[in-house]
Amino acid sequence: MKNIMFIAPPAAGKGTQAELVVEKYGIPHISTGNILREISKEDSEIGKYVQETLASGKLVKDDITYQLIEERLKKEDCQNGYIIDGFPRNIEQAYEYDKILKRLGYEVGNVIYINVDKNILEKRITGRRICENCNTIYNINDENNSPQVESICDNCGGKLYQRSDDNLEAFETRYQMYEEKTQPIIDYYKKKNVLIEIDGNDSVENIFVKIDNAIKE
Ligand code: AMP
Questions:
Q1: Radius of gyration of the chain, Cα coordinates, nearest whole angstrom
Q2: How many CA atoms, within 13 angstroms, populate the side-chain half-sphere of residue 164?
Q3: Computed from CA positions of residues 112, 68, 30, 55, in that sequence, does the dihedral angle turn out positive or negative?
Q4: Looking at ligand 1, which atom is closest to the CA of residue 165?
Q5: pLDDT, tens digit, for every residue of 148-178?
Q6: What is the distance between the terminal CA atoms of the chain, rounded to a whole angstrom?
Q7: Is 14 tagged catalytic?
Q8: 155 CA to middle of ligand 1, Å?
Q9: Is residue 128 among the annotated active site residues?
């Protein structure tokens, strides 16, 4: 299967859609946000730096992301395809990703751009809850996507938490970062003829049908 990259504004549902692709196709989901959230729990200088940067909504230094992404993509489970989400996040990272792909002998594959209006993202951001155990994502502002019991994961019974950057203030910074830094990479992949745009102003199920049709081809 071709590799898949997700590009989308914050809270567009990238993580949820990636998990649906994982379920259906069994390829690994590589999310720089998830990897960085794990690092932020470490009691070290880098752990502290990552924790503070994530909470502010700004981007972590490029060098840190290059190292962790190449290490992860080298692993055996990525040899037959993977979904990458959250990287690249600016044009410099896109150039570096080309070099990493070349070194590993991989292709960029399908680049899925999920486009969602800002007013919808604002509503989603405050409702997102994540299972601390299995990472399942819920949204308490969406009745089709709420947990059955408040704060408890339907899948595994784990506790749900809210991300430190899922508040309106950090969202503004993250959205601004996205507009400034991530939009140019959309043009970059459009020129390479690998970009597939998906209208994300829709239900989780409908968005997945559109993504699935695009990656099946
Ligand atoms: P996400 O889970 O993709 O929304 O990412 C959460 C946060 O992790 C972002 O707001 C950034 O602070 C950081 N982050 C994730 N991916 C990257 C990246 N490729 N480069 C720099 N920072 C990143």
A1: 17
A2: 15
A3: negative
A4: 10
A5: 999 999 999 999 999 999 999 999 999 999 9
A6: 10
A7: yes
A8: 26
A9: yes
